[in-house]
Amino acid sequence: MSAEMDALVQRVNDKLEALEATLHDLGGVRGRCAAEDGSVTAEVDADGALTGLWLAESVTSRPPAEVSRLILWTARRAAAEATAQRARIITRLNDALISKNVGGDPDSA
User: What is the pLDDT of residues 14-40, one digit of tens each?
Assistant: First the structure.
């Protein structure tokens, strides 16, 4: 194979590895947030779907409306954390894909 073909194959392999790493990392995204007093903890997946909710026994002494607000607050904060993780992973992918094309044709592999 020519040096040019070897370089092309290497660029394609590098991009494939970056994509595989991204998929792996996205699968592990979890956002987690706990209330300051530790009474409520929420965990979400990469899509922001609630995957875990832990309530301390102390919430039983609070009004239901207060508990529901606290649950929603922690879930939103956990989702924001997961979104930030996703953004960092996607930024890393974009950087990996773009850096391989510097000085080259943007449509090249």
Answer: 899 999 999 999 999 999 999 999 999
What sign for the dihedral angle of Cα 57, 60, 62, 66? Answer: positive
Per-position b or e across 81-94, b if 16+ CB within 10 A of its CB: bbbebbeebeeebe
Is residue 56 within 8 Å of 39, Cβ to Cβ? yes
What pTM was estimated for this model as a whole? 0.77
CA distance 40 to 109: 48
Which residues are within 8 A (CB) of 32 and not within 5 positions of it... i.e. 6 or more apart?
41, 42, 43, 44, 52, 78, 81
